[in-house]
Amino acid sequence: xxxxxxxxxxxxxxxxxxxxxxxxxxxxxxxxxxxxxxxxxxxxxxxxxxxxxxxxxxxxxxxxxxxxxxxxxxxxxxxxxxxxxxxxxxxxxxxxxxxxxxxxxxxxxxxxxxxxxxxxxxxxxxxxxxxxxxxxxxxxxxxxxxxxx
Amino acid sequence: xxxxxxxxxxxxxxxxxxxxxxxxxxxxxxxxxxxxxxxxxxxxxxxxxxxxxxxxxxxxxxxxxxxxxxxxxxxxxxxxxxxxxxxxxxxxxxxxxxxxxxxxxxxxxxxxxxxxxxxxxxxxxxxxxxxxxxxxxxxxxxxxxxxxx
DNA sequence: CTTATATACATGCAAGTGCATCTAATCAGG
DNA sequence: CCTGATTAGATGCACTTGCATGTATATAAG
Lengths: 149, 149
Prior knowledge:
Arc Repressor Mutant, subunit A, 63% helix
């Protein structure tokens, strides 16, 4: 039944803890600034990237590894908040196209002003360039799904 | 405002993705086996470690980095499931002492039979010993709170 | 001893999430 | 075309979580 050795267990627990700690810190800073969660940022970033051609929810779902129903409702909230616009999809009557609004762009920028420094504090300030490169390299091997990203 | 450089951003996104991917895989395996979530495992492990002397919820909370109200209700569910026992605390009338039950011990073992191999698959099988050691070392620098753990 | 403050844990309520299922549109065969 | 299978997205329901606050005990200060 292939039990992991202590080196593996150690790497695993460190991964959980480091992630928890870093993420909690970053999310807390956003919240303290009265801003939405990271998931909202991720969505808005993808929407901005897809620009005028828009993006379909199912594509977003794949990119962000979200549950279908979770995304559906996240989009509801974000639309209600005025950060995105849902349009009918010409090609596919079942689908829709998503676009970021001006308000959404503004919010994403405001979030980045908090998010960026928070990342730096949580990661960049604690590691050397070499360490970060090594870290990225190793973590990359844990990501099975080969994303261009 | 100290924006992070691309190396930092890269390390950050890899950390999020690797963690997401690995954790989702592991949790999915537990769920497919009809078992509780990882949080339950963590609690039961701590309860086992604290043995006959028991452990206070607030200590558990600190160890596992859980929200106070979250833990309170998690303990409710676990107690209802028969995995732990709550006893009055002699020293402190506000508090309580937690103990794992036989049923809890059995479940923790059963979970480990899934959890262990899942960790190995998610981490151990993808990295060399040296990489895991390096990973642990680097991630350790991201964990501010100095736990003995 | 009394009063103020802090700590341990619980809980009402609103919001978010997971699961299963639904509707509607597309696609694949005939 | 028509029919069955598949895919995009929404949603009812039960459960979980977050926030604020509540209750009770402990600790500190006078």
